[in-house]
Design a protein that fits this description.
By secondary structure, this protein is of the alpha/beta class. The protein is built from 7 helices and 10 strands. It has one domain (about 1-205): NAD(P)-binding Rossmann-like Domain (Rossmann fold, 3-Layer(aba) Sandwich). The strands form 2 sheets. The protein has an 8-stranded mixed beta sheet with strand order 3-2-1-4-5-8-9-10. A two-stranded antiparallel sheet has the order 6-7.
Length: about 220
């Protein structure tokens, strides 16, 4: 498949892109500038020799993508999706956005979202797209360490059952990872909020934590 990453030059986007490139997918890294997108694509090629990658401005990497990952901070979601709504029409879109902010002396804090979740807001902004959410709880650092497996469950939320299965299938291609259907769009709120908890645990215990469900 061809996978595009909007805002793909950050650690999370690059980490997922590297893992997907290692699984044999074609990767396109998007950014606000063509140069940064091309630099991101080069980083993927360096991590995965022989990978088929390209880079450019966000709007320019979407045309032939089978699945588009949104991997930018929550603060940029509304404006970014407003600019790309036409290019994302009809596509499977995986929202990796977790609404949070960093407060001095506190750490990562989950934000209250008017639509209850970043996924629900994205669905409203992209009425013609097949939007789901996943990968918010993955450690960017662990994703970029391609030499070992990641023990984690990926919780996938959304109302489009087929789109969820596509993203679950992609998650399952990362060694050690299991994709799980976690329900409808409203459930994404709780998955997104877990991200701040994991960040704070990582800082406190100087480790890289992930989510694993038992008994399922």
């Amino acid at each position: 498949m061809k996978l595009a990453f909007v805002g793909g030059t950050g650690p999370e986007g690059l980490g997922i892109a590297m893992r997907m490139a290692a699984a044999g997918h074609e990767i396109a890294i998007g950014s606000r500038s063509t140069e940064r997108g091309e630099e991101g694509a080069q980083k993927v090629r360096e991590a995965v020799p022989g990978a088929t990658t390209s880079g450019g401005a966000n709007a320019d990497v979407l045309a032939e993508a089978d699945v588009v990952f949104l991997t930018f901070p929550y603060s940029g979601q509304q404006a970014t999706l407003e600019a790309l709504v036409a290019q994302l029409d009809g596509k499977i879109v995986c929202n990796v956005v977790a609404p949070l902010e960093f407060q001095q002396g506190v750490g990562a804090v989950a934000l209250n979202v008017a639509g209850n979740s970043a996924l629900q807001e994205a669905i409203q902004q992209l009425p013609g797209s097949r939007v789901v959410s996943a990968f918010q709880n993955m450690s960017a650092e662990e994703l970029q360490h391609l030499d070992h497996a990641i023990e984690a469950d990926i919780l996938v939320c959304g109302r489009d059952v087929e789109a969820k299965q596509v993203v679950i299938g992609l998650a399952n291609q990362i060694t050690g990872v299991r994709g799980i259907d976690a329900g409808g769009p409203s459930q994404s709120r709780y998955v997104e909020m877990l991200t701040s908890l994991l960040i704070n645990l990582n800082r406190k215990h100087k480790t890289q934590t992930s989510i694993r469900l038992v008994g399922l």
